[in-house]
């Protein structure tokens, strides 16, 4: 009987039920959309690399020793001993630049990152094992020096079978003839944004002087083999110079910015869930007030307090189920939109959507618990009301939380937000502290409405006239419910300030790093290797050069104490660049580091460690770190701890004197500064004097701007989530005002009958909305400052970066200007409904309630 009654009641109050379901659903969707950003970026990258590895279940790749290739035969000899391996497939990946593109070619922003056209050398005599699908022509055979290019690239460049592609590479000039095109629905052709071609392995080895070398060896296992067991066994049997990975492991490239955003979004997910919970709580509280006569009648007919309570809990259960179903569906759409946006920014194909079951379950559980928590207070208030009291209409379902409780909750949240926690507890503590903070705001808000009325009344009466007094009176009469709406607005505005402060802080930190690190008039790279004496040539030929600094980037194996070895970036630079007496560059030292160590840096076998390395592995100035070099494992003294954003922050800065220890070769980049000349004029002269190098020159301001623009665009998806927060806040205000109007139908009917005009009634409702939104905005700005501190602190703890929130003036202006806009939009529909209702209809509605 209770279930039947509950279902009928939910359908009878369709719009109220829909608003509550939407509140729960949006909260769940926000959680799914935010916490799966990193999962989806990695999942799509992994799917690309998995498809590009074809039938291979495992791959043997080079260890992190500064080299991109391995000697194939020794690996193959070792693999022959493994009876679980059925076949091997060798692959050589090589990046080159089309000669036609070389004059305008721009290398990736970060030195050391490969760019250009990807040539994949494959064992083309085994087409059935290759991760390619022919669209036209044939695969190139050994000795043909042919190449099959992706269909998309051929269409873009208007290429046809038989055309010749000329390449510029570190090994010189070479060419291939197009023999076929590849379908772009997966496999190798999905790599490198389609700029890819497949050629014979032996032909590519010959063209690049890499005979006998490969990038990795794919392993096809015998049927029913356990890939993980084979991988662990190979790791034991193979030297440390090799890595044994799953094909998807090549796609695990989430950098420090992704980690920072992901950790911040996980905190936001908890606060968005709390915001949606406020909307659900508000609706339940309002429904009890709206139905006080109904509860009185039920009690008179013999319903017990427990039965009345069970009705509310049944409603919560049904709404939870509906909210979970709608929320998961909406969460899929939000996750897909964010992933597609990031795929566009990071230039990878969007092929899969990852929704980890544990996160779906967590979001659904949180949504369900939030709904029951929102229902429990109003339900208990309704079940405990005597029939005669309810009949007189004196119920205020929002009461029951004294001011002291609100102050205690708010104070606890603020105190927890400024404490420091162990790395594993950071996110949990941050989310909990923010939830307490905004719940506390909602509980304290009703008491603040009394002084707020005195402050707002003179201004609003001047703007709205006498109807403003009616609206202010209504604010106080429904103060408990309006307190919840104020909390919702505070959370929406708080997210705007909090996320904006975090993003501005990250951008400012990167900008400070760029300003101190990217110093020099121009930064030059080349499509072919720089000559060994290039630095000497420059200094001899151009006396106006004030700085010539080489920069190289290598990947090396780093062995943290009592942990497995891992990859780290080694940024090799000339010590003169950071010499205080003569250099233009400056390292950003973290407090407590040894700054006067440049003489030790000149000697070599010494590094500056990034703050991320220091935090994650307890590295301190004066200690030593173990790095794998061409001479084996060597100890390097740590001269200091610096801020660095290269390669997810896991970086060591070393001297170019040690370049030979990390694979040798020539630097990837030279930094030049010139006096008495315009840098652009000098750059054009360099290109004329070194035509065979196909120099790529980026000038200071454009180089800095390119880096900062890239990081700013990356946070576009984060900022877009703020729209969701503001929408939920507006729904909370509109829902509150709508319920307030439902409660006051009789009052409005009497006012209209006494001559109150429609426009005056609208102004009174607008007054109520403006008070709620403005007070919520002011509290939200304060809460947002606390939120930004918590988000950046938790992100710093997880990533090892040193980021402080920054609050630009325009951020506060946006938050403050958004307040009246949200208030007007949220109040418009309820105000219009109140103004248009006929007095007789209002009286009839109040009697039915």
Ordered list of secondary-structure elements with their pairings:
Blueprint: H1 2-12, H2 14-35, H3 37-52, E1 58-62, E2 70-71, H4 72-79, E3 85-98, E4 117-122, E5 134-137, E6 146-150, H5 151-157, E7 164-169, E8 172-182, E9 196-200, H6 201-207, E10 213-214, E11 216-221, H7 227-237, E12 242-245, H8 256-290, H9 292-300, H10 305-346, H11 357-383, H12 387-391, H13 403-418, H14 426-464, H15 467-477, H16 479-517, E13 522-526, H17 534-541, E14 545-559, E15 566-573, H18 598-603, E16 606-610, H19 611-617, E17 624-629, E18 632-642, E19 651-655, E20 669-674, H20 679-689, E21 695-699, H21 700-714, H22 716-743, H23 745-753, H24 758-799, H25 809-836, H26 839-848
Parallel strand pairs: 4-9, 6-8, 15-19, 16-18
Antiparallel strand pairs: 1-11, 1-12, 2-10, 3-4, 3-7, 3-11, 5-8, 6-9, 7-8, 13-20, 13-21, 14-15, 14-17, 14-20, 16-19, 17-18
Helix pairs in contact: 1-10, 2-8, 2-10, 2-11, 2-22, 8-11, 8-14, 8-16, 8-22, 8-24, 10-11, 13-14, 14-15, 14-16, 14-24, 15-24, 16-21, 16-22, 16-24, 16-25, 22-25, 23-26, 24-25
Properties at a glance:
849 residues; alpha+beta; six-stranded mixed β-barrel; 55% helix; 16% strand; elongated
Your description of this structure?
With 849 residues, the protein is α+β, with helices and mostly antiparallel strands. α14 (426-464) packs antiparallel against α15 (467-477), α14 runs antiparallel to α24 and α15 crosses α24. The longest helix has 42 residues, at 305-346. It is elongated, with a radius of gyration of 33 Å. The relative contact order is 0.13. Mean pLDDT is 76; it is low at 109-113, 251-257 and 393-400.
